[in-house]
Amino acid sequence: MSTKMQALSLFDGAILGRAAGDAVRKLDPRQLARNPVIFVTEIVSLVVTILFVRDLVTGSDVAFFTGQIAAWLWFTVLFANFAEAVAEGRGKAQADTLRRMRSDTMAKRLVDPHTRQYQSVNALDLRIGDVVLVEAGDLIPSDGEVIEGIASINESAITGESAPVIRESGGDRSAVTGGTTVLSDWVKVKITAAPGSTFLDRMIALVEGAERKKTPNEIALSILLSGLTLIFLIVCVTLWCLAGYSGTTLTVTVLIALLVCLIPTTIGGLLSAIGIAGMDRLIRFNVVATSGRAVEAAGDVDTLLLDKTGTITFGNRMASELIPVPGITERQLAETALFASLADETPEGRSIVAYARSKYGLSEQNQTSEGMSFVPFSAHTRMSGVDLGRRTIRKGAVDAILRFAGVAMNGAPAPFRQAVDRIARTGGTPLAVAEDGKLLGLVHLKDTVKPDIRDRFAALRAMGIKTVMVTGDNPVTAAAIASEAGVDDFIAEATPEDKLAYIRKEQQGGRLIAMCGDGTNDAPALAQADVGVAMQTGTQAAREAGNMVDLDSNPTKLIEIVEIGKQLLMTRGSLTTFSIANDVAKYFAIIPALFIVTYPELGALNIMKLASPQSAILSAVIFNALIIIALIPLALKGVAYRPIGAAALLRRNILVYGVGGIIVPFIGIKALDIVVSALHLA
Amino acid sequence: MVQHFRPAIVLIVLMTLLTGVLYPFAITGFANVVFPHRAGGSMILRDGNVIGSALIGQNFTSDKYFHGRPSATNTPDPNDPTKNVDAPYNAANSGASNYGATSQALIDRVKADVESWHKAGIAGPIPADAVTTSASGLDPDISPANALLQVARVAKARNLPEDKVRAVVTAAIEGRALGVIGEPRVNVLELNLALDALPAT
Amino acid sequence: MSIAGWLQIILVLALVVVAAVPLGGYIVRVLAGEHNLLSPVLAPVERGFYRAAGVDERKEHGWLAYTMAMLIFSLFHLLVLYAMQRLQNYLPLDPKGFDPVAPDLAFNTSMSFVTNTNWQNYAGETTLTHFVQMLGLTVHNFLSPAVGLAMAVALARAFIRSEARTIGNFWVDMTRATLYVMLPLAVIVAVALVVLGVPQTLLGSVEATTLEGAKQVISLGPIASQEAIKELGTNGGGFLNANSAHPFENPNAWSNMLEIWALLVIPVATIFAFGRMVGDARQGLSLLWTMAIVLIVGIVAIYAAESYGNPILTALGVDPSLGNFEGKEVRFGQAMTALFATATTGTSTGAVNAMHDSLTPLGGLVPMFNMLLGCITPGGVGSGLYGIIVVALLSVFVAGLMVGRTPEYLGKKIEAREMKFVMFALLIYAVNVLGFAAASAIAPFVVGDSGYLGNKGPHGLSEIIYAFASTNGNNGSAFAGLNGNNLWFNTTLAFAMFLGRFGYVVPVLALAGSLAAKKKVAPSAGTFPTTGPHFVGLLLGVIIILYLLQYFPALALGPVVEHFLMLNGKSF
After folding, report:
1. What is the DSSP letter of C435?
2. Are the C-beta atoms of residues A510 and A518 closer than 8 Å to each other?
3. Looking at CB atoms within 10 Å, which of A117, A173, A289, A630 has the fewest?
């Protein structure tokens, strides 16, 4: 996957070519039997084909009509197969790229883990528990755990991210993945995956769709579609009898044409493509789901558990405000604070410099003076600063600076004390600044909430999803950040047990939980959550416990994962509705055509004014086939999700796919009828 | 499964006693004590004889009586019990023609009936109730329009001035209760009884 | 169409709703076993029944045991009615001295009453003794709706419980429904009917000498007591052949209004009860609005079609101002006939105050379509609620996906298992109606010149479709020109009734079991909304489209084409 997956366009020429071939191969009834709607279509296509041959042999004048119906029925099946093949084709292309990296690697298996004596074996012969030595330049032969050593590793093969990562024994950074490369140093790795079931293998299988099992919702939908197919089969068979009562003998060809128009071939043909495309969207998003079930569950998630640091906030304290004591201007304070931090390379220090520069426009010159000597931070003094000639500038913890300035807390100016209280209460860190024993003011350091996160949480709330912030901060700090970020709830001073308990409580209340985590101690919560997204950088335990792995290790992605899950379900629902709504127009096309001889009065139902009975039936069948092709892009891209709440979404989709589904075929069939009769096809 | 037998049997027996015996007999007892006339079918007595039920139409054919609607009731053919013969207003076997809107038999029958009205000197459209059979075959009522069309015939047969007969008819018209409930109608048996009760001229 | 007509229609519907709201609350309390108005009188009776029957009222059933109890109870009761009919000549209360009922007719009639259908291949006044009418039919008229109500409540419980193994005790539900709901209402309505003129006597008939001197034998009987429960229990089996068109069953406009009220009130109340049980009245209301809209559109359609009259007869010189009047009674008029026909087929009652066979083609299409929906607007006692819930589950499943979540209804996720039961129930209907109708439509002994049809042409096909729509929907009304009293129809209609009831409720109860076992999911803004106008619109859409798709060809060859033929003056 060193080629970025996003690079694959929706309709890549090579993929389409291969899909066309696959569409024909998929005609094998043993394969098609998995899809009852299309299977039935195939069988009746065969029947009409036989009738066509008979008509040809007997020289019947309906042979041309029968032949056309047969052809379009076959097209219907082929188009459905093609849709599936296109969806699979995109996965296959990705799998090929992955497979190239899995080319047989030689592994250095240690005879004795305590020594560095090894024998060369094929990577495929490695068993769980074997220990291998991987040195700079080697490919890691299989998934495992670092038990000794430290190394920088290039994981771009898996993540697409070229910056090397550090892997070392112990801690949460010990997992290594087969197919990645050690760049420097060496590690001893204990193999944790059996051959053929490594992370890479699973990814290949996944993107290829080889292990694709129907997901629960897909099964339920298949039952609906099979049921409808059976019902319409009954409708068509019994129609022969009811027509017989009226003195009309319906031919098998037209009954089959009616049947295929009525059974939900559109959604039946696109169903598996939708599912594959959903997984594919996730993979292109650099998230690997271990099952389709997890993707569906993502759509149902009610509560998101998000770690504060890195997800909601940037994770480091930054200067956000300067509060001088009375008698000092902000600019004076800024200048002093800037000096105090010039040589301070901590993130806090740099943020003060940046803040002073951008806010107060302090330039370079007056910052560089001679005779500057930096006083580093020490745990003992709990302050840092700079000695500038005779000036001694210090910044640090409030009590330390007060001591430095020789002031008691209650001797400090009231505004200063109030500011200290306010900052502490809102979760920030007050940093006092003093010069030559004189208290100048405060720098407000705070953990900054990401700028767009509030809007995203608002969108989630509109979707009906509750966001919960998990943080190690004390409750006061947590509450402040929670309200700033706009989360619905938070867990302060969170331990892994707290997380687990919270998840259980929510689940007890009938809610589905998603969370992400990376540490080994997250594993129980990841396993308990309905959607657990493990970070690729996390431990092997975490990756095993979750049902998705985020290759970018970006916890914000949970939100997109939920959207992808919802999109998958919406696409299925919308196309099902569309497919069923289509039938109305087909009836109006076909029923008057069937009985025009016996009951010319039924011509009143021919509201589309179709040219002839044969043209009406043919147009309906052609429409039924072409609509599958027309909807493939939608099936693959998915119906656009908008976080506008279920009621509004429903209204919108019913209008587009329900009402639209009723109207579109009227137009389509009429247009086809004009073409068919103009070409004298019927 | 067997454990369900006892409750099934016992409850069927108990419920039969309660709803099949106690309930109908209690209603019957109550009705016959408090509303004996209605409970007995609203029978009309004249000179101690039952002449019919106020609720059930009769088959009037004589010109001096107002006629009810056509009736489709029948009775088993005395000669061949597997067949039925027409028996209008057979109150022992209610029933209808069950002709659909496109039934040729319906059209033929209505055509004949309309013609006989025309022959009787009635011009213009015939009230629908006069040429259609009712649902029960025992409809006691006709529409006021139908009754009024028959005034001339009845007056002639009874040697009464038409106005007098029309007055009886008008008095017999039952309107909508409270102006809303029910349909305007004339009970034929009661109308004919009122006619018979007129002092002879 | 007249203003007075519309006012009557609105008045009856308003009275139904006014009564149904408190009745719904009462039903909830009663079936939960809570103390209520009638407890002082009926609670001892109830306890006595349980003691005698060996029922522990605190012990609940899982869905399978519940289903088995219901099936065994129904089977035994079917056998009792069959035996009564076959032995009626040996039993008391036989003032007219009837012969035993023939085996096929007795089978059909037994099945008809145990399934709450009340399809009648017999004419009451010429076939059955008072004993069978009272101890047989009237008892079924009480118990079959009580069984329906029990099953509906069991399904409703499945939605309010979370991870539950049981759905209630069948014996307790059925007993309470009979004692507290059906019986008291029946007493009230029966007395009211007597007051309005419905006979209630043990006499078999009275012989009158008419004004013209002819003999008129007038059939009588304990009519009021059976009439009351016939409507309240959405049964519909008349004491007399002409059913509620007979002046003794339905003597005037007031009794007509009372009967329409009675046949609607419990089904509507059950929907209110459902809203209360699930703790959100709006859930019930959205179902009710859906039903009401189908019902009201039906009323308008029949009223308009019938008022327009039959153009063929108008051309012959018939005044069209009364509308199409064949098979109708003067005292009811078009408005209350339209309301009765729609209400009786929207519920599973099937009583008629006019002959549906003689309705205009489009007028007849309305009751037919109501029944093809399975009588769910508002449906039979109990069966209306579980019927509409099946449709709601289907709608929620199809459209619920469109909001991007696994579909859920009232906090229960609808997954493969539930869809299996829903589709099974739907399939039963399709096979039942279309299968039997198709077989009948090509059977020469049915459609031949000396066959069983009362009308030729498309209307004859309508008679067949109507018969199976009616029996499948457990309605019981008929296009009565069809002669059903023969081996073919006695048998096929009986099977249609059996499948339409038991073939449908077994998956429904399995559904209840499966839903009860599920964890109740908490609602959120992302949850598919099952209240409000959009859900009503969705339900309507699914009902119309899904059912129209199944039956459009059949309807096109029956009433639809007949309508166009009528307009063109064709006859058969």
Report:
1. I
2. no
3. A117
Higher-confidence residue of A363 and A67: namely: A67
Chain B to chain C, count of Cβ pairs less than 8 Å apart? 392
pLDDT given for residue A450 in this prediction: 80
Strand arrangement, sheet containing A513-517: A287-289, A548-550, A531-535, A513-517, A303-307, A466-470, A489-491
Task: Report pLDDT digits (tens) over A105-137.
Answer: 788 888 888 888 888 888 878 888 889 998 888
Contact between residue C527 and residue A301 where contact means Cβ atoms under 8 Å apart: no
Residue C268 belongs to a domain: no
Contacts of B4 in chain C (CB under 8 A): 65, 68-69, 72-73
A-B interface (Cβ pairs under 8 Å ≥ 3) = no
Chain C CB contacts of B96 under 8 Å are: 242, 245, 327, 355, 357-358, 480
Interface test with C, best of B3, B13, B15, B60 (most C CBs within 10 A): B15
Angle between helices A265-284 and A292-300 (to 10 degrees): 90
State the Cα–Cα distance between residues A213 and C263, nearest whole angstrom.
50
Give a yes or no: residue C189 inside a domain. no
- Complex ipTM, two decimals? 0.96
Q: Tell me the pLDDT band of A287, cut-offs 50, 70 and 90.
A: confident
Tell me the sheet residues that pair with A441. A324, A433
- pTM for the predicted model, two decimal places: 0.89
* C309 conformational bin, left if phi > 0, alpha if psi -120 to 50, beta if neither: left
A22 is catalytic: no
The whole-angstrom distance between residue C108's C-alpha and the CA centroid of its chain comes to 17
> Residue C500 domain-assigned?
yes
Task: Say if the Cβ atoms of B14 and C76 lie within 8 Å.
Answer: no
Chain C residues closer than 8 Å to A580 by CB: 398, 545-546, 549
B147 to chain C nearest CA, in Å?
12
- A245·C461 Cβ contact <8 A: yes
Q: Looking at residues B156-164, what average pLDDT do you find?
A: 94
Q: A654 in helix, strand or coil?
A: helix
Interface with C, mutate which of B74, B89, B143, B183 (most C CBs under 10 A) = B183
Instruction: Compute the distance between CA of residue C427 and CA of residue C407 in angstroms, rounded to an integer.
Output: 21
Range of the domain at C524: 381-567
Burial per residue of A404-443, b for 16 or more beta-carbon CB atoms within 10 angstroms, e otherwise: bbebeeeebeeebeebbeebbebbbbbbbbbbeeebbbbb
From the list A22, A143, A307, A583, the catalytic residue is A307
Q: Is the pLDDT assigned to residue A7 strictly greater than 70?
A: no
Per the domain annotation, does C458 fall within a domain? yes
Count the domains in chain C.
1
